[in-house]
Amino acid sequence: MNSFDVLILGAGIIGCACARECAQAGLKVGIVEVNIPGGGATAAGMGHLVVMDDSPAQLALTRYSRSLWQELMTQLPPTVEYENRGTIWVAADEEEMAEVHAKQNIYASAGVDSIVLDSAAIASEEPELRAGLAGGLLVPDDAVIYPPTAAAYFLAEAMQHGALLLRGHAAVKTGTGVVTLDDGSTLTSGRIILATGADKTILPWLPLQKRKGHLAITDRYPNFLRHQLVELGYLKSAHKITEDSVAFNIQPRTTGQLLIGSSRQYGNEYAAADNAILREMLNRACNYMPALAHLSAIRVWTGFRVATPDKLPYIGPTEDPTLFLAMGFEGLGITNAPGAARLLADEFLNRQSEIDPTPYLPSRVARMEVAHG
Question: Is the separation of the CB atoms in 129 and 248 below 8 Å?
Answer without folding.
Answer: no
